[in-house]
Amino acid sequence: MSSRTFHAALVRELSPRLAEGEVTFLARTTVDIERAQAQHVAYVEALRKQGLEIVRAPALPEHPDGVFVEDAVVVVGYLAILTRAGAASRRGEAASLSPVLEGRGLDVVALSSPATLDGGDVLQIEDTIFVGRTTRTNDAGIEQLRALVAPLGRTVVPVDVEAALHLKTAATALPDGRILANLDAVSSGAFHNHDVRGVDEAAGANVLLVGDRVLLSASAPRTAAGLRRDGYDVQTVDLSELEKVEAGPTCPSVLLPERRSGVVG
Question: I want to staple 204 with a disulfide (CB 3.0 to 4.6 A). Which of 17, 26, 208, 220 is the partner?
Answer without folding.
Answer: 220
